[in-house]
Amino acid sequence: MSNNKLNNVEENIYISLILTFIGGFLDSYTYILYDKIWANTQTGNLILFSLFLVEGQFYNAFLRIFPIASFCIAIFINQALIYKFSKNKNWIKIVLAISIVSTSMLGFGIFKNNNIVVICLISFVCALMIGTFKKSKGDIFAPIMCTGNLRSLVEFFAKWIIYKEKDAKKVVLKYVSIIVIFCTGVYLGAIIVIHLATYSMLVCTVLFLVSLIIVIYKQ
């Protein structure tokens, strides 16, 4: 096994596209099934936490702490796994395995009557994705949000058009693909969630499993 192959396994383009689809899918899932909440990122929760405090809605503010805490705990665990398994990168497999188990439990409705647990578990999985998969073939990459990807798309487009950097064109096409896949995940996710409700989460389970197989094969 070459060091380059080992070092770049989490930057595989196929994994990047799969996780991007999952990111869009999860947005549809929580938005439709859980009162228009996005569990992928915590910006909204931090904003609402602050606004609820201003409005004196202390209980609602308190509820927002749970997904934020879950997100932070997952990032800490991710760093601990990186420290423990940095030599062989088995932490990538562990993260994907945790995601498979978590989405399976959600898909089979184990926590369907407890919205807070569901949101926290999704936040946990999303944080693991962010902490593990930060690049796609060497370029900065965010699997569960598109703001950074959109910024990178325009920056490389400018490099291509203004600075005449030929290599930038390939990066532009990659970011276009990532954003299109994210939107596709949102679109198909909405359709699947409407028809399958809680069970639709098993789509993510299958996709995480495919990602794990790719990692094992590449290693």
Low-confidence stretches: 1-6
Structural class: mainly alpha
How many DSSP-defined strands?
Answer: 2
- What is the average of the pLDDT values? 91
Count of discrete alpha- or pi-helical segments spanning 4 or more residues? 9
The proportion of residues forming helix, as a percent range, comes to: over 70%
Instruction: Tell me the span between the first and last alpha carbons.
Output: 7 Å
Number of domains: 1
β-strand amount: under 5%
SSE string, helix = H, strand = E? HHHHHHEEHHH
Rg from Cα: 18 Å
Largest sheet: 2 strands, antiparallel
- Overall, the morphology is globular
Quaternary organization: single chain
Please list the strands of the largest sheet in the order they lie side by side. 1-2
Outline:
This protein is an all-alpha fold. Helices cover 75% and strands 2% of the residues.
Could you please describe the fold and organization of this structure?
Helix 4 (58-84) runs antiparallel to helix 5 and helix 5 (90-107) runs antiparallel to helix 9. The longest helix is centred in the C-terminal third of the chain and has 31 residues, at 166-196. This protein has one domain (10-134, 182-218). With 219 residues, the chain is an all-alpha fold. The protein has helices spanning 3-7, 13-33, 43-55, 58-84, 90-107, 115-132, 147-161, 166-196, 202-218; strands spanning 135-136, 139-140. The model is unreliable at 1-6 (pLDDT under 50). The protein is built from nine helices and two strands. The protein has a two-stranded antiparallel sheet with strand order 1-2.
